[in-house]
């Protein structure tokens, strides 16, 4: 599916229902996302609270790709709250399958990394990706992420068993 009305922007509290629909759909479409069941079962009101917390945070962020009223992709940053770890943030990116190969993940990641760079925090960006997800690995490498570790049996997929995952890292605002 191609779209000309796609908008990349920070999430809004009013996106709660659309964001829940997105999460429920994307987890069904791809084996690459380990989304906790409680995240899929949250109410719209709780999702609104979660999105408000993200918006009120100086170190967390959530950008969405919106086609009309539908969220078709998201890039999330979650930072560590502990003082000695606040310089570390973990990112994740997901796009609905019908929107794959349209550079939406690229646009989301670019917007998120620009926001991180402008804010100055976090400075160590980490992510975990299944080794079989070569498209995502190539995307992250295009943005300067490097493989820091390979973890055997780092993820269990009931359909195929234990899988290797890669931990990738990019340092930002560190001289």
From TrEMBL:
Annotated ranges, domain N-acetyltransferase: 6-167
Keywords linked to the UniProt accession: Acyltransferase, Transferase
Keyword Acyltransferase: yes
Pfam families linked: Acetyltransf_1
A molecular-function term among this protein's GO annotations: acyltransferase activity, transferring groups other than amino-acyl groups
InterPro entries: Acyl_CoA_acyltransferase (IPR016181), Bact_Acetyltransf (IPR050832), GNAT_dom (IPR000182)
SUPFAM superfamilies from the UniProt entry: Acyl-CoA N-acyltransferases (Nat)
PROSITE patterns: GNAT
Protein name (database record): GNAT family N-acetyltransferase
Organism taxonomic ancestry: Bacteria, Bacillati, Bacillota, Bacilli, Lactobacillales
